[in-house]
Amino acid sequence: MTHIIGIIRNQTVAATLAAVLLFSAAQTFAAADSIAASLKAGDSFHVGSQTATLTKLDTLPFVDNEFSRRYRFDRFDNPKLKEVREKYHLDQVIAPGKDEFEKQFLLLDWVNHRFKRFGKPTSDARGALEILDAIDAGNTFFCSHYGDVMVSAAASMGWVDRPLALRRPDNIGQGSTEHTSTEIWSNQYRKWVLFDPTFAMYMEKDDVPLSAYEFRQEWFYHDAAGVTFVLDKDHKRYHKSDMPVFRGRYPGFGDLVLDGGATNVYAFIGYIPNTDLMNSGPDYGKMFITKDHICDGTQWHQRINPADPAHEPYFPIDQSALSLKADGSNVQVSLKTLTPNFKTHLACFDDGPWKPMGDHFAWPIHAGRNCLEVKTINQFGVEGPVSKAEIQVESAQGN
To answer: From CA 324, how far away is CA 331, in angstroms rounded?
Structure first.
């Protein structure tokens, strides 16, 4: 009897082990199949009896990381956004812009010129609506208030502009110790762009606007060679050799100038992860900070630091992240996005009309060139950057 029980036990163990190995193999093959099914540019595959090649795949990725998950964005149904937009006629402010980026820059210029007195604040107003009312009452404000107004004015137009808290190292330069600036998401350039409302300024290199981190690296490690400082809606252009650039004279403060005091503050970049400033104020508790050895010896806020500061804080938004899978006579399309106030994806087949689409759909493939373009649109009517795929199909006979 003991011998029989032992045989049964051994058979059971063997069966269990075989099942585990079979399951593991199945999982491995499934994972491999899943990886293979995600098409890359240059991949060839079969669509029915025809041979197809993915000749182009241009898409921003969907990034879900520690830093993207911290963000809280202002909402389309926030009545304060509508009040800012309508009370100050912001549609008219940006109307002369020939493209999205110029419209965003016109908004930046408007925010800058709404402030009449710069210096120690004479009002405890917080949030764009309160601050704008207090400006009209003759009050004085600092850079943080410029940032508050810029973030909410952009949100009222359906754009995402995020606040930045900045600090210079104690041993570098003189002048301002801290500063507030912002970064706006540009669908046109498909990237985050530094927008400083106190100076009505962005920076560019090789005709491409820079993010705060990109500017930081250029300023501290490349002596700002090739960097252009673009100011005001008439696009006045300066270089480091032109500094100091006079920006205004304010009673009780003195001269506001663009110089090293205005740029050394980018050594520490604190990313404040919320844009609903009129309702919640800045969320300094969840702020994260980029810094490196040039910040050593300077005491400031202690927060988590991105291990990859060039990429981790710079997750795309408003994108239709496009992935493709061959499936019989069609190609299956999957879309993912981080779009605040998302409404829908739009798709365009072979240069036809744009149509609303879900997260998953079949792309009917035909002989010859096939083109798919996708983009998001949010509830404000702002369209995201276009993702594009092209497939060339030839029949089995080469026709």
So the answer is: 6
| pLDDT over threshold 80, residue 23 | no
In this prediction, residues 193-209 reach a mean pLDDT of 98
Write the CA distances from 142 to 41, 147, 241, integer angstroms: 50, 9, 27
DSSP annotation of 229 = E
Averaged confidence pLDDT in the chain: 91
Residue 110 in tokens: 């408007």
Q: Could you give the angle at the alpha carbon of 162 between the alpha carbons of 173 and 214, nearest 5°?
A: 50
Is the backbone peptide bond immediately before 244 cis, with ω within 30 degrees of 0?
A: yes
Domains of the chain, with CATH numbers? 39-61+318-394 (2.60.40.10), 68-295 (3.10.620)
H-helix segments, 68-211: 79-87, 90-94, 100-114, 128-136, 143-156
Sign of CA dihedral 309, 185, 81, 89: positive
For residues 345 and 101, give the distance between their C-alpha atoms in angstroms, rounded to a whole number.
22
What values do phi and psi take at 238, rounded to 5? -135, 165
User: Do 76 and 341 meet the contact criterion of CB atoms below 8 Å apart?
Assistant: yes
* Percent of the chain with pLDDT strictly greater than 70: 89
- Burial tier of 86 (Cβ tally within 10 Å: 0-12, 13-18, 19+): exposed
According to the model, what pLDDT value does residue 48 have? 85
Segment 26-50 mean pLDDT: 67
**Separation of alpha carbons 86 and 156, rounded Å:** 9
End-to-end Cα distance, the chain: 73
Q: Give residue 394's pLDDT band: very low, low, confident or very high (50, 70, 90).
A: confident
Sheet arrangement for strand 227-231: 208-209, 201-205, 227-231, 236-238
Residue 154 contacts residue 161 (beta carbons within 8 Å): yes
Q: Rounded to 5 degrees, what are φ and ψ at 373?
A: -125, 140
The residue assigned the tokens 């041979």 is 51
Whole-number Å distance between alpha carbons of 176 and 194: 19
Per the CB < 8 A criterion, the answer to whether 205 and 229 are in contact is no
Q: Are 117 and 95 in contact (CB under 8 A)?
A: no
Global pTM reads: 0.89
**pLDDT exceeds 50 at position 324:** yes
Beta carbons of 184 and 154 less than 8 angstroms apart: yes
Say what the pLDDT of residue 15 is: 44
